[in-house]
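User: Can you model how 4'-deoxy-4'-aminopyridoxal-5'-phosphate sits in this protein?
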Amino acid sequence: MTKFSPQPGIMEIDLYVGGKSALAGHAEVLKLSSNENPLGPPPSAIAAMQEAAPRAHLYPSTDHAALRHAIAEAHDLDPERIICGVGSDEVLQFVTQAYAGPGDEIIHTEHGFSMYPILTHMAGATPVRVPEKDRVVDVDAILAAVTERTRIVLLTNPGNPTGTRLSDAELTRLADGLPGDVILVIDSAYAEYAEGYDGGKSLAETRDNILMTRTFSKIYGLGGLRLGWGYGPRGMIEVMTRIRQPFNLSVLHLAAGEVAARDQDWVSHCAALNADQRARLTGALRQLGIACDDSDTNFVLARFADETQAIAADTALQSEGIIVRRVGGYGFPEGLRITVGDEAQTGRVIAALTRWREGMA
Ligand code: PMP
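Assistant: Here's the modeled complex, given as structure tokens:
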């Protein structure tokens, strides 16, 4: 018993630190566990950060105007409806904290992003977990779970770790079916990898209860910088801005983000590489008898016969210095989530899994 008691809900929050050891001592560790961009940060953003570094003694802008305008131009959006955060994680925190509290419910789906229940507890609200169907979000199950206490639905589209995506028609059916006073958050962290998907933009343009969240962590190659943004109705953005710390973004965030948002050639280049290597990895897995769905992201969920096989494959990969993500905690004990790498990295994964398979024969 300590003198200090944490607020209700805090002890329900999982400790989200740590992770797999860095395979200390292995000559060439290949980390394919966090869906990072194999090409690194865009050179344009590196130059912008170097240029901005000597100004690091000055406090950054509090309104993020230049960054919001660059994002708005790149995506043809209204800059006044954009809010920026320390990763899209922080934007998700703004919306859950601003609009839900004790007694309220926040819905997420069975295999939704692992931060959702954490953010829900941080807001003091109750997470409601809804099943998916064949590893795809089930719109009817979400609609059936809505109660008078529902404040927010958190939807990952495309999904993580499934890599699958709701069709635009299903997404619209979900938006149409929700009560108008429930906020639908479309977390589109992987939108750029899904061909023909607008990330929920057209829905956000036509409804007043939708927040689209996006990130610079994936295709923009800036996961270590921590920069994300949301697009919603003006009133919602204003409310969230009230709880945003004015100096949440550093001069480096602002400098890199503005340049990266304008560097759409980089985005196209990364998307093309990912599409090629994803098709190659998916095909090779299937040829090895390892099941996987078509992915709309920069990772593939490999499903083995059972948990024992997934552990054995993970161990075999680790012995070759390759780190992938076990996803038992996401509801897939038989799964390994493998980030799509560049050509050489993908070759290394395929070769390691092929050797593992041959060893089983
Ligand atoms: N949503 C999903 C579905 C994600 O996978 C991630 C990162 N793994 C995030 C949001 C958060 O991204 P970030 O905070 O880096 O922008």
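A couple of observations from the model: The pocket of 4'-deoxy-4'-aminopyridoxal-5'-phosphate is lined by residues 35, 87-89, 113, 156, 160, 187, 189, 215, 217, 223, 228 (CB under 6 Å). Residues 216 and 222 are 6 Å apart (CA to CA).
User: Helpful, thanks.
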